[in-house]
Every structure is written in C-alpha cells, then in structure tokens.
Design goal:
Length: 714
C-alpha cells in the first residue's frame, strides 16, 4: 500500500507523477518519463495555485494548456488524458479540506480554460510550421534544378568509370543500360547485354532463394537483396559474381527500375576452391585428410534421430618394415596403391575413405542401417588387401588391422569415436593382426585406464598434475557453510580432467594411493588453515572443517596416524578442523586392529565420517563400536525426494536412519542434494548438513571463499 503524501509539495509532486504517466505514452518527445514529470511539475503547481485562488484565473489554466504544446504533448489524446487527470486527481491532491463541491466546479472551469489554451497554442504552432514549410519549398525550388544537373553528371561519371559492373533494367527485366565493366564481364560485346532479359541468365547453380528474392524486389516487396550468382558467358565459361540488386522508385514511391551491381569473383572462387582442396586432401594419396574426415564425422554425429554411423580404422601391419627395408619411396608407392584399393571399397552414398597420416586410414559409412553396412565395408577392405602389391619387381603382402566403431548419432564426440576406434584397432593388432575387432566400451575403458593412466600416475604426482576441488557442506538449519569436502582431480595432459573414479582404483592397485593420499591430506589441511585465518571461528565463519576421503589402503597403512599428526602440527591446524571420511564397505567386518588408528585419531579430536552409509551390509548395531561421529547418507536414499511427492518408503527409511544416528550422538550429512524441495524435505527430516549441486558443484577454493563471505555477511 502506498503512503499518502505529507505536505502540499508532496501532493503536487504526486499529481505531476500521475499526470506524466498518463500522457507519456502519447507524447512525441525524446524526454524520458521522469524528465517529462519535471517539465509538468511547475504546471501542476500552477494548477494547484489556480484551484485555491479567491478569484478564478482562467489565464493561468490557458497558459498550462499552451505549455503542453511546448512540452511536445501535441497529440489530442495527450489533452484528453491531461483533462482526465485534472478532473480525477487535482481536487484530490491539491484541494483543501472542505468546500469540495466548490473546488470541483472550479476544477471544471480550469479544464475548459486548459483546453482553450491547448487549442490556441496548437493552432498557432501549426500555422507557423506551415509557413516555414512553404518558405523552405520556395528556397528549395531554385536549388533543385542545380542539384539535379550536378547529380546526373556525378551519376554518369560513376556509372561509366566504376570498376564493378552496373546495369539498369525495367521491371519486366529488360536491360536498358550497362556500363563498360559489365560489358567486359560478358565478353565486351554490347549486343550480348543490351536488350537481354534478366531471366535469360538463370544458372543451374543458382541458390534456391535467388529468383524468389528477385520477384519480391520487382513487385516492390523488398528494396534490395544480395546473392552469389553464376552466369554463363558466350564462350562457355562461368562467371561468378557477388550480385546486389536494388529497386529504384519514382517520385511517388512507385517501383520504376532495377539497378544491379556485379563484382567478378571468378578467380577468387577458383583460388578458394583450390586452397580448400589442398587443405582438406592428402598430398600423397589424394584422399580426404584428417581435417575433412573430422568435418564429415562431426556432421554424421550431429545428424537427426534415427541416423547412425559406422567407422573402420585401418592400420597396416608391418608397414615400418617396408620403409626400413625398401625405403620411403617404396613405402609411399605402397600407400598410394592401398589408398586406391580403399577408395574402390567405399563408393556407396554416405561412404568415404580418408588418410589420417602415416599408414593409418579410416572409412566412414552413414545412414540408418550402418550395423550391417560397416561390417560389409570392413570385409571389402580386408578382401581388397589380399592381393599382393607389386613394387620394383617385388610382391609385397599387405595386411591390416581394423577397429570398428558403430552406433547412433548424437551420443559421442568425434574425438571419442576416433579414440575408441584407435583402441579397438590396437586390440586387433595385439591379437595377431590381419583382422577386425568391434569396439567394446568396457575394453576401451580398461585399455585407457591400464595402459595409459597406470604408467602416468607416478610422474603425475611429481609434475603437479593433481589438484583439489572443494564442495561445500551446508547446514540445513541456517544455510551456513560449515565445511568442505576435498575431491582430488587429475589434469591429464592428453585426457583432460579425470575424476577420482578413473584413477583412485589404479592408485590403490599400484600402492601409489599412500603418497597421493598424503599429498591430498596436506593440501586440504593447508587450505583449511587459509580458511580459518580468513574467517576465524565465529558463528558465521566460512568452511572451518575440511573433509578428506581415506581409501582402505590408507586405512591399513601403519603411518596413517603419524602422517596425520605431522601434517596438522606442521600446518598449525587443530584436529577439529579435519574430518576423515571412510566408506562403509571399508569397515564391514573390521577388527580392532583396523579400527585402532581411527580411534586414536578420533581421541585426538579428528572427526570420522562413515561415507556412503546404506550401500553396504553392515549391522546397524556395529555403529556403536565404530569411532565415527558423522554418518554420510548415500544419495540413493534421497533421489526420490527430487520429485513431489517423494516416495513415502524412502522418507520413512531416511527418517529412521536420522533418528538412529541422533540417538547415537551422530550427525547426519546427505550427499547429492540437487533441488530446493529435496533440501527442504531433508531439513524437515532432521538431517544436519548436506552437499550437492543445489548448493555448488565442486570447484576451486576461491568459489568457497565467495560462498563463505556471503554467509558471513548475511
């Protein structure tokens, strides 16, 4: 509800505001609405004074009406809206208490006077403008004749001397004039152009919209258009042009002529085509190269629903031996012969063969039925390689290994498809060669993981390729940031950023998890110190506790406790700043020896969290003997809460777990919170803290600084 204005000035201001809002939409002015309000404010004050004068002053109201004209409120609708505002609001905001009938009568007289002043001022302004227009027309008549002669002379000079072709035709398409440049484009003979009809110059390569645009222009629906167009020359060659056609109208605005401007782009086009070919084709074999292949592959992968692709990745077996024994010239001749054979294998629509480099070739097939077609293509390739290649009197046996990838469009990127084909090809080569193998996603993952990541892990830690992202832990009661979970990432030079699920199992298998875990613990504790120094330990502090995951291998390592103590002491961080997360599966059936390190850490003040709770098969009664203070509830229990209404069974399960945990003095943290409804439901169920994409995705520590700062400042 809007409060009533207090004083007389406030009431006048309010009346001016209402007035400006009423007339602004029908006002022809560059003023903004607030600026117009400032123009109307003194007029409102004048009307207010005239309303309260002892004797009626019509001159003041007439002056207000005239002032509306000066404010560019010349539309009759502006006067109507002004009078409506005066009638409805002048007495309400500017009249004194009592004598309302007398004030309304005076308001009506003021409206009449305003209308009279408005009409008089508008009439005077109109007469003045008409007089000015008449004088300007008389002065312009003398100028027009001179300007017309000069304009025609300039046009003739431009028309004849222009480097681009210029032609003028009537609306029926008959060419009336053409300059020298246009005649030269068509062979230099004037009869070849003059008298011709524009529609005679159709060409098979005309864009579909070319003649539609032309029809729209000559009918007056558009003023100009620009296209790339080809013309047949009398000598049989093709003229390529950048063509701009404009409509010329007469003095009454009726279409009269069409003007064409033509730039000869034939040589430029041929050069571009040649450069394009050289950039997209292999110089040795003439096959499409990697660039063109990736363009075709990406196009196939971006095709619509129902479309599929099939890819054969071929690598010649023993090609290096040919180069080493017979020389690179013989190797090149072998590659040319293989390319010719492969080209003959992929002649159907949607098929292509390309050379990626060296002795690696790819064949691509697209369409809705590639499950069968790609197998047939691979068989044709293998058959084409059976016949020996004769070079310098020697018959060379050619064999190859093929990796086949087939699938629906839209699910993978070109790089992922080619990587899968490459891995599959090497699997075929490792199996003895001279065969084809079909891609297996699981085998691809194993190959990448085992042969790539395992060998790179030791040096990756030394090179500093690992980094940590932090995901905030948020208190469900007040929304404050209470901590953050440290999540290690590997910035792999070839594969990009890898999540822990890609390399932690390998690190555990090779024993590298211990030094990697020690580094993660050290970096996380250092970050916890930075946060505590920045935000202190106040109630609205930032993430004061850091959660670090422990693998089963670390849990059983004899140096776990000492490493943790050394890191905390070296960083100057209290134990209560650290929470170690251990998965429920790692503690299933754990004996006292395995639990002893955790108990020692818990006695020091380090929090122990039971991660992924609910995914194992441990006895709930065992919780009493575990040195844990926090249960991290697995996201599988809360996924249904993203929908409304939530699954009542899941609600009961979570409610029971929370009740049990709290009865054992355990806090409950929930993972995977993705919606506000989910967070609110978990809050109602009594969960303590939560993390998930609803609050923030894992990110650099600076992002948590911002979240904590927002929390600290309210």
């Amino acid at each position: 509800m809007t409060a009533e204005p207090d004083g007389a000035a406030d009431r006048v201001r309010r009346f001016a505001t209402i007035w400006s809002r009423a007339v602004f939409p029908v006002t022809s002015t560059s003023l903004t609405r607030p600026e117009l309000e400032e123009r109307l404010l003194p007029l409102a004050a004048r009307l207010s004074a005239a309303l309260r004068e002892r004797s009626f002053d019509a001159a003041a109201a007439r002056a207000v009406g005239a002032a509306l004209i000066d404010a560019h409120c010349t539309d009759p609708e502006a006067l109507t809206r002004s009078l409506d505002c005066v009638d409805a609001y002048l007495v309400l905001y500017c009249g004194e208490d009592g004598h309302q009938d007398e004030l309304r009568a005076r308001s009506s007289r003021l409206q009449h006077a305003m209308a009279a002043g408005f009409a008089q001022a508008l009439r005077e302004r109109t007469l003045a403008e008409q007089e000015a227009i008449a004088q300007a027309a008389l002065r312009a008549q003398g100028v027009v004749a001179q300007a017309l002669h000069a304009s025609e002379a300039r046009f003739r000079a431009v028309f004849e001397g222009a480097a681009i072709g210029i032609g003028i035709a009537d609306l029926d398409g008959n060419v009336l004039q053409a300059n020298g440049a246009l005649l030269r484009m068509f062979g230099g003979s004037e009869p070849l152009v003059h008298g011709r009809n524009v529609r005679d110059w159709t060409h098979p390569e005309d864009a579909p919209q070319t003649w539609r645009l032309y029809d729209e222009l000559v009918s007056g629906q558009r003023e100009h258009y620009h296209v790339e167009k080809a013309f047949n020359r009398p000598d049989g060659t093709v003229l390529w042009t950048n063509l701009t056609v404009s409509l010329l109208r007469d003095a009454d605005g009726e279409p009269q002529y069409q003007l064409a401007l033509m730039e000869d782009t034939t040589e430029r086009r041929l050069l571009n085509l040649r450069l394009r070919y050289e950039a997209t084709h292999d110089a040795l074999t003439g096959l499409p190269n990697r660039t063109l292949f990736f363009e075709r592959l990406e196009k196939a992968l971006n095709a619509g629903d129902g479309q599929r692709f099939g890819l054969c990745y071929l690598d010649l077996d023993g090609f290096k031996t040919v180069n080493d024994s017979l020389g690179h010239a013989a190797g090149d001749r072998l590659l040319v012969e293989v390319a010719d054979r492969l080209q003959s294998c992929a002649t159907a629509p949607g098929e292509m063969v390309a050379r990626l480099g060296g002795d690696e070739f790819v064949a691509l097939t697209t369409g809705p039925g590639t499950e069968r077609e790609v197998d047939e293509l691979a068989e044709r390739i293998m058959s084409a390689l059976v016949t020996p290649v004769r070079i310098d009197g020697r018959e060379l046996l050619v064999q190859g290994s093929i990796g086949i990838v087939e699938g629906p469009a839209g699910e993978r990127t070109a790089a992922e498809v080619l990587r899968s084909a490459d891995i599959t090809m090497y699997r075929a080569k490792s199996a003895g060669g001279n065969r084809s193998e079909l891609a297996d996603p699981e085998a691809d993952a194993r190959a990448i993981t085992r042969h790539g990541l395992t060998t790179a892990l030791p040096a990756a830690l030394d090179r500093g390729e690992f980094f940590i992202e932090y995901q905030p832990l948020v208190h469900l009661g007040d929304g404050s940031v209470r901590g953050a979970e440290a999540l290690v990432r590997w910035l792999h030079p070839q594969h990009g950023v890898l999540g822990p699920d890609r390399f932690i199992p390998l690190a555990e298998h090779t024993g590298l998890i211990v030094p990697l875990g020690r580094w993660v613990l050290q970096e996380s504790v250092r970050q916890a110190r930075v946060w505590r120094e920045r935000y202190g330990d106040g109630a609205a502090a930032g993430p004061l506790r850091i959660n670090v995951n422990l693998s089963p291998c670390q849990l059983s390592h004899p140096g776990l406790v000492q490493d943790t103590v050394d890191i905390l002491e070296r960083m100057g961080v209290a134990p209560d700043a650290l929470c170690l997360e251990v998965t429920e599966s790692a503690l299933i059936g754990a004996d006292d020896d395995l639990l002893k390190p955790l108990r020692r850490l818990a006695e020091m003040g380090v929090d122990i969290a039971l991660d992924d709770f609910g995914t194992g098969y441990s006895n709930l009664a065992n919780l009493r003997r575990l040195p844990v203070s926090i249960l991290k509830l697995d996201r599988s229990f809360t996924q249904s809460m993203q929908r409304f209404p939530a699954d009542p069974v899941d609600l009961k399960i979570v409610e029971g777990i929370v009740s049990l945990a709290h009865s054992l003095n355990l806090a409950v943290t929930v993972e995977g919170v993705e919606t506000a409804a989910q967070a609110e439901q978990l809050r109602i169920l009594g969960c303590d803290t939560a993390q998930g994409w609803y609050y923030a995705r894992p990110g650099p520590p600076e992002r948590l600084h911002e979240l904590a700062l927002v929390d600290a400042t309210g």
